[in-house]
Input
Amino acid sequence: MSMTPSGKDLDSKPILLVAACALVDIDGRVLIAQRPDGKAMAGLWEFPGGKVEPGETPEETLIRELAEELGIVTQEACLAPLTFASHGYERFHLLMPLYVCRRFEGVAQGLEGQAVKWVRPNRLRDYPMPPADEPLIPILADLL
Output
């Protein structure tokens, strides 16, 4: 492993910025979506969201992704930052802010063929999730 004078690993992985959202319904349930076949980690459940594109803020990403993936419309003022995940995968390091959204319009449906479920926070562990998502569960459960 080669290091710079500051101690940084020259072979370090790129950082991938992905925004995620915990949509919370009036009953206090959280929406999770199942990763479809053909995607990395297919079959695992996750909080909806996606990769932050160049020139986009995490909030803009969530507004776009929630509309594209679920048919949900929301606004930046309805997205409250809660916590974040920082997780090293084999090819990249994921940095993922998690927002909570309680005000939105539409009925969530898997517009990209993915299954979706509304789940009570204390039941989130019943659904297999990517390693980066798992540490977010207790923080979310404490909030709700």
